[in-house]
Every structure is written in C-alpha cells, then in structure tokens.
Design goal:
single chain; 248 residues; alpha+beta; 4-stranded antiparallel β-sheet; 27% helix; 26% strand
C-alpha cells in the first residue's frame, strides 16, 4: 500500500528534509584530506541531535552509525571508521533522519580535494541522472517512466546502473512502498498520485554494474574496484510535477 500524505505530514517531512539539507551543507565543509570517516559520522550525529532530529540509520536493522559514508568504490552503506580521507577521494554521504516520527533521506557524493576529470564526470552525471528521473515525476505518470529516464541518462553518459539497490517510498517509515528502481520500462508500473513521497536515488558505477557485500554485512562495493556515485532526494509528488523536500 502506497500512502498519500496529509498536509500535516507533508509539513513535518519538509522540516525533516530541510534539516537533512542543512546537515549535508555542514558536513560538506568538513570533507578535507586528513579527516576520518568516523569523525564525519560523529559530527553528523551531533548535528542531527542538536537540530531536534533522530538518526534513522543508527540501529536500523543493526546498522551501527549515524549516517552511511561510502568512499570511492563503496557504493552504499559504508560504516565510518578510522579510515582517513585522502586528496582525490570521492565520498558519498547518505543521511537519514526523522523529525517527530517523519523521515527524510538524502545522499550526495562529494570530492575530497582535487579529483580526476573522470570522477568529476561520474559525480555530475549521477546527479544528472537523478534530475532526469525527477523531471518525469508528476501525478498520473508511471513509475517505470521515472526509472527508465534514470537508466537512459546513465547509459547515455557511459555509466552502469546498480540493479540490486533502489529507491523507495518514505514517511513514517524510512522504507515504505513502492520500490523505485533505477532501471525500467517507460509507461509501466505504479501510477503516481499527488501526495506520495518518494526517495529517488540513482547509484551509478564507472565500470561494471555488478556489486558485492563486504564481510561487515553492510558495505556494498563495486565488483571491479571502479568508483561509484550516489545522489538522492526525498520528493513530494504534485499534480503538475514534484517538490524536493531535502532542499533549501
């Protein structure tokens, strides 16, 4: 069952989303060579708490940290540790938090110091794929059309789509119906309705689409060691388009 959010629920999700946006902007200023991923996670946890929210990640199915921090070939769900970020790394921050019981979910991949042209194009084009998908979001549209737009953009820019992972509905639960794949057939699937809230999140690789899970049972990495990027917004479906809730 895909829920339609009330005006009150949407307002609470907007607050959660705005604080999520502010957390991203704050952490982005800290992403410099020499910082550890655990230090980033600690800063995130403090920021979330000080802004009246609760980390949706910490304790979720046993996940140990405040946010997911994934470096280079780590696709998603990396765990902050004593790993030191180095010049030329790329790092994905996937931030999930709740405000008065309503969740927001947003991810972005950032450069650390000076990165290669190839990695910068990976970041730019993964964000572009997200925006291509969002451009198809409106009441009456088919979810498969959104997924198809993401896949088409990715392939046009030489990137592969991770198929084992997908976006999702969001609200009083971090993960709700429906699943939102990053590949699909145009004109198929669920019909979107105004008031639905979705977390749309392409995860794209420079090399193969294949991934595998590390022994920590959380971190997903690319099978060939090539870098991966992840961009995500929580959005509200409108009659004539969409509203990004994890923005200013």
């Amino acid at each position: 069952m895909v829920s339609i959010k009330s005006d009150r629920e949407i307002e609470l999700m907007k607050i959660a989303g705005h604080i999520n946006y502010l957390c991203h902007k704050y952490l982005e200023t800290k992403l410099k060579p020499g910082i550890t991923t655990k230090e980033i996670d600690d800063l995130a946890g403090k920021f979330i708490e000080e802004h009246g929210c609760i980390s949706s990640s910490k304790g979720y199915e046993g996940y140990p940290n405040n946010i997911c921090i994934s470096v280079n070939d780590e696709v998603v769900h990396g765990i902050g540790s004593d790993r030191v970020l180095e010049d030329g790394d790329i790092v994905s921050l996937d931030i999930c938090m709740s405000y008065k019981g309503y969740h927001s979910d947003s991810a972005a991949t950032y450069p650390v110091g000076t990165i290669s042209k190839r990695d910068q194009e990976l970041l730019d084009n993964t964000k572009g794929a997200l925006m291509a998908g969002l451009a198809e979001v409106k009441a009456g549209a088919k979810l498969g059309t959104v997924s198809h737009a993401i896949e088409t953009y990715a392939h046009e820019h030489g990137l592969s789509v991770v198929e084992e992972l997908c976006g999702h509905g969001i609200g009083t639960e971090l993960h709700e119906d429906p699943d939102v794949p990053n590949f699909g057939k145009e004109g198929t699937g669920l019909t979107l309705k105004a008031g639905m809230t979705l977390a749309i999140e392409p995860m794209l690789n420079l090399g193969t689409k294949h991934v595998y899970l590390l022994d920590d049972d959380w971190t997903v990495i690319t099978a060939d060691g090539e870098n991966s990027a992840h961009f995500e917004h929580t959005v509200l479906v409108l009659d004539d388009g969409y509203e990004i809730l994890t923005g200013e």
